[in-house]
Amino acid sequence: MPRTLLTRDRFSLFFLLGPFLGLWTAFWLIPSILGLDLSFRSSGFSSGEVGAVLNGEIAAKSDSFVGLENYRKVLHDPRFWKSISNSFFYVTGSLMVILPLSFVLALNLLSLNQKIRPVFAFCLIIPGLAMPGVLSTLFYLFFHGREGALNQYLILPLGLNPINWMMDPSFILPSMVLQSVWRWTGVVTLFLLSGLEGIPKWQLESARIEGLGLWERCRFVWLPGVRNLMLFSAVFLTVEGFASFSGAYSILGGSGGIMDSGLLFVTYLYQVAFPGGSGSFDFPAASAMSFLVVPVIALFLFWVLRMRSMSKVS
Amino acid sequence: MTRAFSWVFLSVAVLFSTYPFFWMFLSSFKTNQEIYQPALLFPSQYNWQAYFDLFSSKYIPFFSIFFNSFGLAISQATVATLVSAGVGFALSKCSFRGSGALLSLVIFIVLIPKQTLAIPTFEWMSWLGWRGSLFSLLLSGAVTGLGVLFFFQVFRFLPSEWVDLARIEGLNRFQTYLRLLPLVSPGLVTFFVLHFVLSFHDHLLPLLLLSDENMTLPLALSKLKDSSHRIPESVGMAASTLATLPMIVIFILAFSRLRTALREVSLS
User: Fold this and answer.
1) CB distance A108 to B9 below 8 Å
2) A112 to chain B nearest CA, in Å?
3) Do B6 and A302 touch (CB under 8 A)?
4) Maximum separation of any 2 CA atoms in chain B, in Å
5) Contacts of residue A120 in chain B, CB cutoff 8 Å?
6) Complex ipTM tops 0.85
7) Which of B21, B54, B28 is nearest to B43 (CA)?
8) Closest CA to B25 of B2, B50, B52
9) Do B119 and A38 touch (CB under 8 A)?
10) What domains can you pick out in chain A, each with its CATH number?
11) Chain B residue nearest residue A245, CA to CA
12) B258 vs B261: CA distance, rounded Å
């Protein structure tokens, strides 16, 4: 390749990659480094310094290096572990309901004719278009309570006692999972449906000729067709679940609910950093929490994706 | 038999996903007492007071909040689309040193939600003196790993011969990229719409970074809900309806393109 072409290409690459890498450095790399630095410093804030915080005089205030002290503190905090286990339950619960349900919904959509299919699919994604705050308000007013739809149409007809979905500690988390199911199922269904529509016709034909039953067709034709999309959705839902904040914030007002039974990881992060009332701002501990949890999840998911692409190659 | 089952099953699912929104819309006309009876669908009389209150900024400056949100989401989605399309093109159609590392980096960005970086971002923005303005959210939200992966797939779908042809014609890669952009317009529209929704819904970063006069819709909605003892519930319902409606309209307009693009991306 002639030399001029090479240099010209470097110029193009600069324009193609430059903006992304620039923004990434400014709003991703630098905050990460700042956060890491912050997590090694002592929490120098008391409630009296709220004014200083609001004026933006933050960096100067916490100047003493304390090493791993914050990490030790976080690891001995029972509420930290509570929030982790809650988030874990929330994520696995949502995954285990959403993925099978969407797969079945997508299969059923596939059996409809071309005209009506988009209409149904569109109706299903409507909850995904509404804001999480709207969803929680609706959930609170519509589904919740003795008079709420869940109790009226589901629990009472089964002859059970009405459940107080948002106040009973053992039902807060399941009702948050239900909320997430309500929000994401339609979107995931749309993804899977587009995957199913892309399966070549001859595969289904040959399945029919071989006389495969419904179960076998699922296993050998449809599931392999959407396996990658399933994986992608699972990863997306996991990240989204660990990052979820808005729904819980709107419904519980930033608290963890009764006995912290609805305390999610990001909510707790927010609580540690910006406690209401007389608490103290503890940015360093909050950063330490992020750095304890996030890399673990990210590395785990990265490993999952890696394994998947390895097995595809071989 | 199976077809009938499909219909019933899907109808139930559709009922679950749409009925609460009808209820929400109709509740914007109701009195508080009627709203606290969820089994009730239609209001006893249609009272438009909640909408008047919103439009006359009685409780919150709804119009400015709405346009804050809308403008922020549109500009963020535009920047994000353009920036990620470039990287996606470079990753799928150019060979350069470090492309593998860049791809891993992008995947890591997808896997680390930006909510968990919120506290250092807050510090950094304070230090820059950008806190309080919508501008701080515009650029920080425009870095998206998901977008890069999406366009990586979209451009992989285009035949490489076109890129070779462009090179023979003497175009450099950037010019080639500009020529190829119109060909992936379903992908561009799809990602624009998806990112628009995501940034329209973002709650934590606006909560930390924005000052009260620059509020966005999610903040306004939770504020309305917090003070619902003083403000009738119907106002919250009206605001929720108005916040949801634009999303539905945009999706109806873009839905067929969205399906085309998703089908293409999901092929590989």
Assistant:
1) yes
2) 8
3) no
4) 73
5) 10, 14
6) no
7) B28
8) B50
9) yes
10) 69-313 (1.10.3720.10)
11) B204
12) 5
Look at residue A221 and tell me whether its pLDDT is greater than 80: no
B contacts of A230 (beta carbons < 8 Å): none
- Enumerate the β-bridge partners of residue A65: A41
Q: How far apart (Å, rounded) are the C-alpha atoms in residues A129 and B73?
A: 14
Contact between A99 and A155 under an 8 Å Cβ cutoff? The reply is no
pLDDT for the residue numbered A155: 67
Whether B192 and B81 have beta carbons less than 8 Å apart is answered as yes
Q: B2, B17, B40: which to substitute to probe chain A, counting the most A Cβ within 10 Å?
A: B17
User: Which residue type sits at A259?
Assistant: M
C-beta atoms of B18 and A229 within 8 A:
no
Distance CA A181, CA A173 (A): 12
What is the distance in angstroms between the Cα of B71 and the nearest Cα belonging to chain A?
17
Please give the average per-residue pLDDT across B61-86, as a whole number: 86
What domains appear along chain B, each with residue ranges and CATH number?
Answer: 22-267 (1.10.3720.10)
And the tokens for B56? 């006359």
Q: Which residue has the tokens 């905090």?
A: A77
CB-CB contact of A292 with A74 (8 Å): yes
Place of tokens 């903006």: A19
How many residues are recorded in chain B? 268
Residue range B187-211, pLDDT digits in tens: 888 888 888 888 888 777 777 777 7
Supply the pTM of this predicted model.
0.81
Burial class (CB in 10 A: 0-12, 13-18, 19+), B12: exposed
Q: Quick one: angle between helices B99-111 and A227-243, nearest 10?
A: 60
**CA dihedral of B258, B259, B262, B268, whole degrees rounded to 10:** -150
Measured between beta carbons, the chain B residues lying within 8 angstroms of A224 are: none
Q: pLDDT tens digit string along A119-145?
A: 888 888 888 888 877 887 777 777 666
**C-beta of residue A191 within 8 angstroms of C-beta of residue A124:** no
Q: Are B70 and B105 in contact (CB under 8 A)?
A: no
Q: Closest residue of B to A269, CA-based?
A: B116
Contacts of B37 in chain A (CB under 8 A): 147
Compare CB distances from A109 to B10, B86, B119 and report the shortest one's residue: B10
Among the ranges given (A240-244, B187-191, B264-268), the one the predictor scored with the smallest mean pLDDT:
B264-268
Calculate the CA dihedral of residues B77, B81, B82, B84 and round it to 10 degrees.
130
Lookup: tokens for B266:
């999901």
Report the distance separating Cα B63 and Cα A222, nearest Å.
47
Residue ranges of alpha helices (H) inside B116-232 are 118-128, 134-140, 145-156, 160-168, 173-180, 185-201, 204-209, 217-226
pLDDT at A6: 47
Q: Which two tokens stand for residue A278?
A: 């007389």
Tokens 């999952």 sit at which residue?
A304
DSSP for B18-33, please give it.
HHHHHHHHHHTTS-HH
Contacts of residue B148, defined as CB under 8 A and 6 or more positions apart, other chains included, come to A20, B84, B87, B88, B91, B106, B109
Residue A41 pairs in a beta bridge with A65
Are A123 and B255 within 8 A, CB to CB?
Answer: no
Maximum CA extent, chain A: 81
Residue with tokens 């701002």: A281
